[in-house]
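Quick log. Single chain, no ligands specified.
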Amino acid sequence: MRNSLISLKTDKTISRTWVYLFLSYNDKELLVKTEGFSYLCFKNSNPLKKTEVMNEAYIVPNRKRLPYGMMNFEDIRLDNYYYVDKTHFIPLIEQSDRFFFFIRPRRFGKSLTLNLLQHYYDVRTRDKFDALFGDLYIGQHPTSERNSYLVLYLNFSGINGELHNYRKGLDAHCKICFDFFCDVYAEYLPQGIKEKLDAQNGAVNQFDYLFHECERAGQKMYLFIDEYDHFTNAILSDVESLERYTEETHKEGYLRAFFNKVKAGTYSSIKRCFITGVSPVTMDDLTSGFNIGTNYSMAPEFNEMMGFTESEVREMLEYYSTNSPFNHSIDKLIEIMKPWYDNYCFAQQCYGKTTMYNSNMVLYFVKNYIIYGKAPQNMIESNIRIDYEKLRMLIRKDKEFAHDASIIQTLVSQGYITGELKESFPAVTVANPDNFVSLLYYFGMLTISGMHKGKTKLTIPNQVVQEQLYTYLLNTYNEADLSFSSYEKSELASKLAYDGEWKAYFGYIADCLKRYASQRDKQKGEFFVHGFTLAMTAQNRFYRPISEADTQAGYADIFLCPLLEIYPDMEHSYIIELKYAKYKDPDTRVEELRREGIAQALRYADTEMVKRAVGSTKLHKIVVVYKGMDMPVCEEV
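-> predicted structure:
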């Protein structure tokens, strides 16, 4: 080793003292972190700052990797990935009805949960049990059913083709899965079963043959179906697709025939089923085909089965804080993540007790943090966004309501929506208000927030969903899709954050509002103005808008909370008191509202929450008064 010890320094971050030894070898710096015996290898001859470490230069032997985007339980367990132990739910699943139906939003851990269960129950993994489960809850408390099933796994997201040729895609996917099943379980099944199965015509007949042969061989099957409803987008997107979907799921439709066979199999060798998706729509339409499954999606005992609790997130952060350079305390990182990823509640009985974080988004954040030492610049990972076609579908369905009853406009304007959550409903009735609210809930765009006047109260769970919904809302204001200039918006947003140029920004919002308001929007008045302004400010990447509707505590109409963890050099933050007068109101009413707004802005600016949130930025207190769709007042207090 050339140039032995070149520097020694102590870093007293958070509550831990680290000693760093910088050694030079072959023009690379090796940073030895004495506590925890972790190692960091840097590319350059000069040590990088902790916040500048690049991914390819960051090596920490023996540190568990993050299973971001991974769905294979065996890979996670055997290849030293961090795993949040959810195996204590296995006995609860066994004690539940044998035919288990479970819905969660996308990217919430459904596929990994299914893979976990497959490895637990598969007869082929018996010899790996200790390696896979030994130090987990279920490894210490195994059930009598472990490693006792032949596992059949179907993933309908892998089915190619639209509804008009769905049979072809289903047949092809099932043939691959059935053939694989026959190959890996050959020692448990009659000789020649694969050839005889392939001679059967189509997935329905092949499945019928397969489970009867398993019964004849004295074997029991555990059937897993992942994303059973992956074609829901197509179902709801247009009338023609809905008609084709109805043909597939009703009377003699092929999809219904397949689920009829699933039901028949439960009287034979299929002893357990676990079916997941993102919506109960398809299962309702298949009800008479498969009416023995129990929907546990809103059962309180399974509220925490997918996603992460805050204690699980804290435990993860504590682990990585011992082997990675942390520039924040655990509490501070929770404070950063919570408004973006937390606040999902999937059972009325759990409200006020435990909320869930989106697990995929947490892994995305932590992965970026341990590499770069700071929050990711884009807090929303691209794969979490609801795809554009689904947004278009929701827009169409929302517009089927009378405009005054638009679910999304009401949600944004008053901060919550009420309804009766439905466990299932047919596709043709999705425009029913309670059904539409339920659909938004199942998609993860609403969360349970208690009760209001005898109905379930639902709110937007977090900032990630808020951005999606507000984008959606802006699209509802313009039939021909928005023509707002993204470049112009970006320039105005940057000048708002860094140059304090607020007049042009709010003037732009007022111009857009007036241009895109329909006659019915104008009739809604204050609700429309507030909702539109909030939706537009939510598009500003430098701020997290907090509205009075969110807090319901008499705060400012909109507080643009600066995202200083992402943009530490931004210089301006804003309180906006938004007032509305009707067209016919006299000018004295406008002046009265202006004075009222000034008083409220001053009062809100003096709260501890605002003082803490603005950090080093200059706080601007802006009063905006609309008269109809015009903005006669836009001034700084």
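Residues 1-57, 550-555 have pLDDT under 50 and may be disordered.
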